[in-house]
Amino acid sequence: MAAWWTRRRKLIHKNSRKPFDSTVVLVSWAIWLERNARTFNRQHRTVVQMVDHILEVSAWVQAR
User: Fold this and answer.
1) What is the pLDDT of residue 64?
2) 3-state SS of the chain?
3) What is the pTM of this model?
């Protein structure tokens, strides 16, 4: 993951790197939280719910 992130980051204009970094971290965190919910609480979101959540997170990043 780190290698992918580093390669992708280099392809992005400097002004857009901070939002890109935030998006990668927040999406990773959302996936981690979903993993924990499934593992420890036996709760889960559908794929559509996860995509909606990730899009919501991305909107927060873009709004800064």
Assistant:
1) 66
2) CHHHHHHHHHCCCHHHHHHHHHHHHHHHHHHHHHHHHHHHCCCCCCHHHHHHHHHHHHHHHHHC
3) 0.76
